[in-house]
Design a protein that fits this description.
single chain; Nucleotidyltransferase, domain 5; 15 helices; 5-stranded mixed sheet
Length: about 350
């Protein structure tokens, strides 16, 4: 299988269920996923980031155990692998979480795939959460029937995944598709990754909350000041509420965020020529056509006509559990029958004994 393009999941989906694990900065979720994307025994627990990497891995195993033990024994026995979605960047081949910006300073170079496989007794594969979400939408959601699309999530952070020619495009190093880290403002704010003016630094929930705090300190937003006076930490939700209430600063912040996302999508269309852009995440889903409308208009006005004529901008179909559903195509495309064998049998399959020569008469 090519390192650049991986097999189309719809042609290779196993009929057997898999375990799914979604590691996030605030929650760890697990479930059993059937071949049609149905989620069974879904469980969610807080991510114990403050307690360090060992506690996070232990919580992952606890969540998997809870999901696994909640299905009948006969069903549990048919599980054939674990699909793990986690914040990037990730070394996909080794299943190592490299340096996620929102998991705490100690959560670097964590071999999550091997640790989970050893703890759960099943082979495990790991990919960036947005890649797994793209696979989920391709197999079961808004990407069905489309060979070339982008998945973009706009939430606390901004990320993405690329499906090209019907296959996930991870790039030669497994790091492609970081759609939130394209520059949209040359002199914009510094991103969490260290870059300047990235889409995530302008339009994510984290960015909007940062700008809200700055507006309060500068006494520029009476609405946000009233929210902060209640003792709560202001968030992107407060900025959106302020826009609805007519607060000029909140209106400007939300307009800037929508324009940044639209600008990025114009670039994506010109570079990738996708036929669909699926935009999910809590902010995107809350905004709805208020966000998708300006993106569609910018694509019509600012991209090549041939590309603009074909591209659809759509909401996702799978909702917040998209990365759980995507675990099934992830496992189906990354694991083989050999991965289910015990280590000794797997080695023999990879290097069968040479036939004994027939002695000459």
């Amino acid at each position: 299988m090519s390192a650049l393009l991986e097999a189309h999941p719809r042609s290779t989906l196993s009929s057997r269920p898999v375990l799914a694990l979604d590691l996030g900065g605030t929650q760890i979720r697990a479930a059993v996923i059937q071949a049609d994307g149905t989620r069974l025994a879904r469980t969610a627990i807080p991510t114990p980031i403050a307690d360090g990497p060992d506690a996070v891995v232990a919580a992952c195993l606890d969540a998997l155990h809870s999901a696994r033990s909640a299905v009948p024994a006969s069903f549990e026995a048919s599980l054939w692998g674990i699909g793990i979605s986690a914040p990037g960047p990730i070394d996909r081949d080794r299943g190592v979480i490299l340096e996620p910006p929102n998991m705490g300073p100690a959560f670097h170079d964590i071999p999550l795939g091997d640790l989970v496989a050893a703890g759960a007794g099943l082979p495990a594969v790991v990919d960036r959460d947005t890649n797994v979400a793209a696979l989920g939408e391709q197999a079961f959601g808004a990407g069905r029937g489309c060979a070339d699309f982008l998945y973009l999530t706009v939430s606390t952070g901004i990320g993405g995944g690329v499906i090209a020619g019907g296959r996930l495009f991870p790039g030669p190093d497994g790091l492609a598709g970081e759609l939130g880290h394209v520059p949209v403002e040359l002199e914009g704010p510094t991103c969490g990754c260290g870059g300047r003016g990235h889409l995530e630094a302008v339009a994510s929930g984290t960015a909007l909350a940062r700008d809200a705090r700055a507006a309060i300190e500068a006494d520029e937003s009476p609405f946000l000041a009233r929210r902060a006076a209640t003792g709560v930490d202001v968030t992107a939700r407060d900025v959106a509420d302020g826009e609805d209430a007519g607060d000029p600063t909140c209106i400007a912040l939300m307009a800037r965020a929508r324009r940044a996302i639209a600008t990025a999508c114009v670039g994506f269309v010109n570079v990738f020529n996708p036929h669909r852009i699926i935009i999910g995440g809590t902010i995107a889903q809350t905004q709805g056509d208020r966000l998708l409308g300006p993106i569609r208009q910018a694509i019509r006005d600012e991209t090549f006509r041939g590309a603009a004529a074909r591209v659809e901008v759509l909401p996702p179909e799978l909702g917040p559990d998209v990365s759980l559903a995507g675990a099934h195509p992830l496992v189906s495309t990354r694991l083989s029958v050999a991965d289910l064998l015990p280590p000794r049998a797997r080695d023999q399959a990879a290097d069968p004994p040479k036939p004994t020569p027939i002695p000459s008469a």
